[in-house]
Each structure stands twice: as structure tokens, then as C-alpha cells.
Amino acid sequence: MNPVLSKVLIICGPTASGKSDLALRLALELNAEIVNADSMQVYRRLDIGTAKPSPDQQADIRHHLIDVIDPDQQFTAADFVMAADAAIRDIIGRDKRVIVVGGTGLYIRALVNGLIDSPGGTTDLRQIFQEEALRVGNASMLERLREVDPELAAGLHPNNLVRIIRGLEVHRLTGIPLSRYHKEHAFASRRYDTLQIGISVERAVLYKRIDQRVEQMLAAGLLNEVNGLLASGFSRDIKSMRSIGYKETAAHLCEELSAEEAIRLIKRDTRHYAKRQLTWFKADPDILWFEYPEKFDSILTHAVDFFERREA
Fold it and tell me: What is the CATH number of domain 123-185?
């Protein structure tokens, strides 16, 4: 007999699509708590630029995995799965339902299906690739990856040096493309019984929302937030400070970019990120896509049926 899997409702989609608002509305209707699956909202003190739920929203509905590490700490997909598993057990143990919400596709896929079984790396080899990247640049490293693993390289941006180096590292150690490990070993078994809801937004509308969100972040004090992080001694080179919105703002504060250019780059790079998110999520046949807020009633009906049908 197959084990009974815990039930998890997942809300996903690109940035600025309305995921957090939808999750909050559903949580109120479903007696649920929210588990964050956004890789930037785990950082303390990165509030405005990560579009975290407000303190009032977090007071209305309990959120998990927000503000769990400092800006200079590491937090991997494996860390996320471990923490999310613990949060889900806690929520279900208190007779609440679980809603996972976020736009970090790897986090969600790892939570649902597990992490891939690929070879471990070596610190020395990783250091060699990192030093080479400093010499030749990220774009050149991505081209190297394209030569040995074009499928993996096709989905990566030059700024995603960690994954570029991981792909090169696996190929150097095994002669096998990491993308093949993804296909043959990754995500082989379901870890939860899930309903995955994706928010569908017309591209032009999404891009307009992104531009508006950037303006709202600036009005809410993004400059002061980044300036406070820098003043506290957090380097511009740490992962959290290299994220979209923070790196451009820091460059402006260090007089490397004008305010106008920083804003332009934040908007542009956020649009590019949203496009990559859509590409990732659209490849998952298990995701049901709905417009929001137009189709909220339909989404709620699916969610209620999902939980009640399996609880009966």
C-alpha cells in the first residue's frame, strides 16, 4: 500500500504576478498557513527589494521561512527542503492546511520531488573554475558550458555563475552533462500530494506591473535599505547583495550608476527574470494556470476540492 502523502497547495508564477496576494486570500478561506518559497525572502533585512509580505499581512496569516538567515549566510535548495519539511510538519500537526508560495522554481521542484542525485564536487576544482571566471568573465564560462552541456546552458544567465560552475564541475568529474542527471535521476518520486496553481498574466500587463513595483520599492525606501546594509558592513559581493534591485542600487550609491540608469537596469533585469521564471514553470505539466484576480473563485473551488476530496 502506498503511503498517504501530506497535502500541499502550491502557488507559483513569475514575479509581480500576484502570488502573495492570492496566497493570503486562500489562506484566510482555507484555514491555512504559508510557507515561503522565494529564495530572497529568507534573508533578514532585505525587505523592500524582495517584496516581502508586510508585518500586518504576516500578523493576519502566519508565514514560515521568511527572515531565517542573515544577508551573508548561505541557503541552498537542500536547506530549503529541510526547513520547509519541518514547517509543513508543524502546520499539519496543528490541524492547519499548507500553502507554499514563491517564484523560485528549483525550491518548489525540490520540495515536491526531491533533489537530484548528481556527483559531489571538489573545493579545489570549484576554486579553479571561480578563478578562471575572474580572468575571462562569466559570459565566457557560460560558452564553455554550452560546449559540453548545451541544454543546461540554454536556461542559464551569465550572472548565474554558481550553476555554470556546477555544470562544468560535473562534466569535468564524470564526462556526463548535468542536464542528463536532471533527466535520469532528478525528481523521481513525489514527496507530497500537491495541487500546483500558476498565475497566468499577459506579458505586457506583467511588465507594466514590474515597472510599477520597482517604482513602489523606490518610494518605500529601497535606497535607504541598501545603504543601511552597506553601512552595516555587508559586502556588495555576497549573494544576497548581487540580487536584482540590490546590486543596481548599491552601484548607484557607490556613484557607479546614475539613478536613472539604476532604475532602468532593475526594471529590465526583473523583466528578464520573470521571463526565465515563466519558461521554467511552463515546462511543468502538473501546474494548472489561472488568471488572477479574475479567476479567484475558480482557484478557490479547485483548492477546496483538493483538500476536502483527500481529507474525506
Answer: 1.10.20.140
